[in-house]
Amino acid sequence: MPANIGRMNTLRVLKEKDFGVYVDGEQLGEILLPKRYVPKGLKVGQEVDVFIYLDSEDELIATTIVPDVEVGQFAGLPVVAVNQVGAFFDWGLPKDLLVPFSQQKVRVEEGERHLLFVYLDQVTNRIVATTKVDALLNREEPPYRTGDKVDIIIGDKTNIGFKCIVDSRFWGVLFFQDAVGQVRKGDKMPAFIKRVRDDGKIDLSIQQTGYKKVTGILEDIVEYLEKNNGEMTVTDKSSPQEIFRIFNVSKATFKKALGALYKDQKIELSKDKVRLK
User: Fold this and answer.
1) What residue stretches are annotated with the Conserved virulence factor B first S1 domain (predicted)?
2) DSSP 3-state assignment of 33?
3) Tell me: domain 74-134, CATH 2.10.109.10, correct?
4) Prediction pTM value
């Protein structure tokens, strides 16, 4: 497989220098992995996982740092600077990610978070991004059924909920009543298809619906108990925030799951503890 700019690559070390090592970028040529990123004990002939991009002097450079997003992916990132060229986003690398003014859906400001799509400029080989993501989504009929698990990225807040990118392919809506816990633009998380409307629009839920929602947490509770010497202090009297932090479900769902486990005689309940039988 050829090496790709803007992606993680597994490349072979060709030679070692005082300032780092050169890896085989195949059609891209030899690429420097600076000494500060060279894993301890790495030798010529061995392979290393690196991300390839252009440094501040527009030279190809490799790093073992894994960025928050790669070419061909969507992400929600914070703006760290704005100048006469455009806006710069923090994506986890020393060189910030540029969104030119021409690629901004609305003019962005420092400190904001925005959804963006990362792509490779075919003329300059520079990695850039665009916040004009609408045209990149909903190009086909959603293939989902109610209850299907998907990955979402939280988008803009509306008067009914949050717009979300679903599996990097579709727009969906997470209504306020279906959003468990605190969410913010750019958050990535699993979700479930609540329904696909006749017009192709997707309604989402953070939790599974109906009986599956309860049965899905049963194994998690038992596993948590087993890892904690058969008991826990998280009970039906615990706060919704604590329950969501540990089990990622609402208090109502957690209480139903405890009731099911108690009915099956798998746990014992007391005022301040749950014990595994």
Assistant:
1) 5-64
2) strand
3) no
4) 0.73
